Amino acid sequence: MPTDIVVDAMGSDKAPEPEVRGAVLAARQYDVRVHLVGPEDRLRPILRQALRGQRLPVFIVPASEWITMDDKAAQAVRSKRDSTMRVGLKMVREGRAAGFFTGGNTGAAMATAKMVLGMLSGVDRPALATILPTIKGVPSLLLDVGANVDCDPDNLVQFAVMGYMYAKNVLKIHNPKVGLLSIGEEDLKGNSLTRDTLPLLRALTSINFTGNVEGRDLFNGHTDVAVCDGFVGNVALKSIEGTAQLLSASLRESLKSTVTSQVGALLSRKAFAEFKKRLDYSEYGGAVLLGVRGVCIIGHGSSNEKAIMNGIRVAAEFAQAEVNSGIESSLRSS
């Protein structure tokens, strides 16, 4: 049976075109029904053009308001009661959809999800988790990447449990290795937060905690889940994105610099395409908001139709894996 996923059709920087086209791509490729939330008069002509006469399970759900990147999150969440985010997340809460995707204002999405969906039992704060590529070909998970600037040890323990369950049930990693992101592997390295969190994580029996990990371990495959506060995680994520852009641009320029390298570039086009694919954020769909009572995926504001399509896929996979019940069970037993 198809999985129903709601998309905030007015979220991204170039909305609603990427959302509509991404929804159509997802409906073609995956076993999903996509519900686009937004003003029907704007969505209908774009959807008609994107469908090209095909009959696909893509529907429009009317909403008269949307939250922009310039809006103050807390104020907009309260004042825009018919926003695309609120309407979409309400569908998830009422069981009319299994998951929600937005490429919109991250702060507003988190605040709306907490208000509309509520928190899982045993979770104090939600965490944003993002998937990273590794040299071993198996993805790793980094959380929190921006939901909580200030955290205490109990928050990080909850993040570790949530990350473990997501990696196990959605990424299909058997008994994922969980590490605490620090400035060294030794127990005494790090700041007061990491030193106070370490013994709590070692005492957990519900996850496979392996100790401190360093920044390079995010990509070398030594850990499957890396846990940190949102300040550290967001700085790490933005640095990773900038480095990926630099590598792609530098390699492209190098391959164009001489006739010999241009010939080499033609011969290695497939390898270069694969390299770009591994570094492309659009392949991973967006960050998962873990800890809320439902499925919420938050994508880049610059999400293109491919990123929207993959965000819908990730939302469906998350919903089908029933991660949230596993999180609550693990937190009860810890």
TrEMBL record:
<keyword id="KW-0963">Cytoplasm</keyword>
<dbReference type="Pfam" id="PF02504">
    <property type="entry name" value="FA_synthesis"/>
</dbReference>
<protein>
    <recommendedName>
        <fullName>Phosphate acyltransferase</fullName>
        <ecNumber>2.3.1.274</ecNumber>
    </recommendedName>
</protein>
<comment type="pathway">
    <text>Lipid metabolism; phospholipid metabolism.</text>
</comment>
<dbReference type="GO" id="GO:0043811">
    <property type="term" value="F:phosphate:acyl-[acyl carrier protein] acyltransferase activity"/>
</dbReference>
<keyword id="KW-0443">Lipid metabolism</keyword>
<keyword id="KW-0444">Lipid biosynthesis</keyword>
<comment type="function">
    <text>Catalyzes the reversible formation of acyl-phosphate (acyl-PO(4)) from acyl-[acyl-carrier-protein] (acyl-ACP). This enzyme utilizes acyl-ACP as fatty acyl donor, but not acyl-CoA.</text>
</comment>
<comment type="similarity">
    <text>Belongs to the PlsX family.</text>
</comment>
<keyword id="KW-0594">Phospholipid biosynthesis</keyword>
<keyword id="KW-0808">Transferase</keyword>
<keyword id="KW-1208">Phospholipid metabolism</keyword>
<keyword id="KW-0012">Acyltransferase</keyword>
<dbReference type="GO" id="GO:0008654">
    <property type="term" value="P:phospholipid biosynthetic process"/>
</dbReference>
<dbReference type="InterPro" id="IPR003664">
    <property type="entry name" value="FA_synthesis"/>
</dbReference>
<dbReference type="GO" id="GO:0006633">
    <property type="term" value="P:fatty acid biosynthetic process"/>
</dbReference>
<comment type="subunit">
    <text>Homodimer. Probably interacts with PlsY.</text>
</comment>
<dbReference type="GO" id="GO:0005737">
    <property type="term" value="C:cytoplasm"/>
</dbReference>
<dbReference type="InterPro" id="IPR012281">
    <property type="entry name" value="Phospholipid_synth_PlsX-like"/>
</dbReference>
